[in-house]
Amino acid sequence: MEWWYTQQEVADLLGVSKATLSYAKQTKIIKIADPHRIHRETRYEKAEVDKLVIEEIALYGYEGY
């Protein structure tokens, strides 16, 4: 099992576009460093994203997920 999500997976989980996610990652979501550019797409720690999804559900309810 992977310990990270791709940018598209995070956007899908949060119900936002990849462009919105690019803005949000500056403040709320920490991306995984990839200094050697091994992966084409930005990756995010699964634990961080899951925590944010739980917070979103607590604030806005489960209807959107």
Radius of gyration: 12 Å
Assign the structural class, choosing from mainly alpha, mainly beta, alpha/beta, alpha+beta, or little secondary structure.
mainly alpha
Strand element count: 2
Summarize model confidence as the mean pLDDT: 80
Helix content range of the residues, please? Answer: 40-55%
Tally of alpha and pi helices = 3
Shape descriptor reads globular
Q: What's the helix-strand series?
A: EHHEH
- Which stretches are poorly predicted, pLDDT < 50 over at least 5 residues? none
Strand order of the largest sheet: 1-2
Largest sheet: 2 strands, antiparallel
Could you give the distance between the termini?
22 Å
Strand percentage: 5-15%
Task: Note down, in words, how this protein is organized.
The protein is mostly helical. Helix content is 46%, strand content 9%. The protein is built from 3 helices and 2 strands. The longest helix is centred in the last third of the chain and has 15 residues, at 46-60. The model has no long low-confidence stretch (mean pLDDT 80). 8% of the residues are buried.
